[in-house]
Every structure is written in structure tokens, then in C-alpha cells.
Amino acid sequence: MSKRIIWGLLGTLLLAGCSEQSGHAPASGAREARGHLVETVVVTPRHVALERSRTGTLRVLREVEIHSQEAGRIAELPGYPGDRVEAGELLVRLDDQLLRAELARARAALREAQQNLARLRELAQRQLVSREELLRRETEADVARADVTLLETRLSYTRIDAPFAGVITERLSEPGNVAERYDHLLTLADPSVLVVDVSLSELVLAQISVGDPVAVVIDALGAEPRPAVVSRIYPQVDPITRRGQLEIRLEPVPQGARAGQLVRVQLETAARERLLVPFSALRYDPVRDKPRRSGRGRIARTAQPSLSLGFSVGFAAARCTGARWKSARRRSLKRNRTATTARLSSSASGCRAVPSAAGDWRRL
Q1: Cα separation, 224 vs 263, whole angstroms
Q2: Is the N end or the C end of the chain the one with fewer CB atoms within 10 Å?
Q3: Would you say the pTM of this structure is higher than 0.70?
Q4: Which residues contact 214 (CB under 8 A, 6 or more apart)?
Q5: For the segment 289-330, what is each residue's pLDDT rounded down to a tens digit?
Q6: What span, in angstroms and rounded, lies between the C-alpha atoms of 78 and 90?
Q7: What CATH code is carried by the domain that includes residue 122?
Q8: Which 3 state secondary structure label does DSSP give 208?
């Protein structure tokens, strides 16, 4: 009997010990939940100059097409493409024999009209002719004078001189051909002034002024930067692309530079204060990154970058308040993990990144 009591007590103690161990032992399938560490970035204002590189094509600033203003046979056309001419040098001469004959007849008619008018004025002083007859003779003299002026003008059109010093780039006819009125005969360009037009975003265009220095690289002349200046900013911006156009002039024109060559323009704006956020800290989802309500019923908005600056993004200081920035790389986060995020808040020195409540990164 005593043996049964002893064995019963031992069994009770063993069962109590097993139950106590099982109560403190962790479940085999359970895993301790751990938070995910996130790197934060302090955002501080910095003076940064924007640098942009654009490609373009050189063109001459002045180029004119030489057209005939009078019909006639081409008597002289001495210039060929590549020939340099001086201002006032002969470019085209048309046969003018017919016009000279008409001009001689008009001048004779003018002399006759003037003589008749002089006799009538002497008679009018003695009141031997009527006032109407005198007015008619004066009108005939005026018409004859206008005919002479018209033929002299037409005769001057038979000779075309260079309007400025330049180089002939096109020759579209030959001596002996009959040129009709307004036919295109030559093209004259001034290679002493070369410019290039480039297109820029309206955000960058607003920070550029006429006279700003620019570096230009002409591929055909090597990788050496050439000095240039912003000579013109066109007043209109394309309403579809939101891009404007500016004109850049080479000063001076390097030896070997020609219109039509490919150039690379390197622009740099004046330094201004910006908030720089690394690209690695930004994520954009066109579906989720929309105005949404927070837990307190307020609208939370995602700030948009104003300009891209190399490996960072610049933001205007007024846009920092209330914007939230998650500064960890998305690919480094694992499923079912939470992370401490960062938001931008205003301070006396600008904006800084401060930790906010933990958020579920699976919703990105």
C-alpha cells in the first residue's frame, strides 16, 4: 500500500514539472516580430547652380535670298558658292537696253510737258488762257515726271549689289537665262556671326538672362569648350511642352566653325537656395501618391520636386511643410515589416527630416 502511495506522489511531481516547462517554452512555429531599421536624411538648404547640356545646330544669324525684282536676261552672275563678297559688290546684272530706251522716251516727254507748261504760264499772266487749261498742263508734267521716276527705279533693279559682306551659299541660275520677276538667283550669308537655338524647360528658362556666359563644344573642332553668350530669349513658351527657346551666340567665332555643325551647349544658372533630397529617398506611385485623408480627417498631399539636380532633387522651401519623405530603399524592406518613416517640417533654418509614426511599407 505504501509503495502505491509513493509511486503516485512521484507521478504527480513529474506531471507538474512538465506542465511548468511547457508553459515557459516558446511555440515551435512562432517568430519574434522585429522592426525594420530605416536610414533618415537631414534636408538642409544649399546654394546650388543648375547645369544643363543641350545639343543644337549652328546657323548664321544673317542670311538673305537674292531675288530679281525685274524680268530680263541675266547678263552677269559672277559669284559661286563659297565666294566671299564685300558690301556693295556686284552680284547680278540684267540686260537693261529696253528699259534704258523707255527711260529716254519718258525723259523726252517730260521735257516737252515742261516746255508747254512754261508757255502757258506766260500766257496766263496776260490772261490769255483759262485756268483749267493751265491745270491740265501742270498735271501732264507731273505724270511725265512720275514716268521718269518709275523707269529709273526699274532700271536700278537690273543691278543687284551685296547688302552686306558675306559668303555666297547658293547659285540657282546662270548668265544667259531669262529671269522672271521675283526669281531666286543667289543666297548670301554672313558667317561672321554664328548662333545656335536650344530648347529649355520653363523652370530653367526663368533663371537665365541675356548676356549670361555659356560654354559650347563643337564636335567637329574637338572637345574644347568655346565661349558664347545668351543673345536672345524668345518671349513665348510652348503651351504643350512648356518649353521655351533661347539663342546663343559664339563670341568669337572659332576658326573652322560652319553653319550646320553639331554643337553641345553647357548651361549653368545662377546659384540659388534649394532643398536637396537624394533620389534614393523618393518613391512615386501615380495611383497611390494622390491627396488622401489622414486619420484625423485632414488631407495629406505628396510634395512634387521642382527641379532635378544630378543625384538629388531640389524643392522650393514653401513646399516642405507637411510633405512626407520615406528615406529607406524600397527593395531593402521585407514583407510584413514596418518601418520608421520621415517627414519634412518647417524650422527656423529651413526644413529638416524628423521621424514620424511607423507606417506599413507594403502599401507603397
Answers
A1: 11
A2: N
A3: no
A4: 227, 228, 229, 230, 248, 265, 266, 267
A5: 554 444 444 434 444 444 444 444 454 443 443 344 444 334
A6: 8
A7: 1.10.287.470
A8: coil
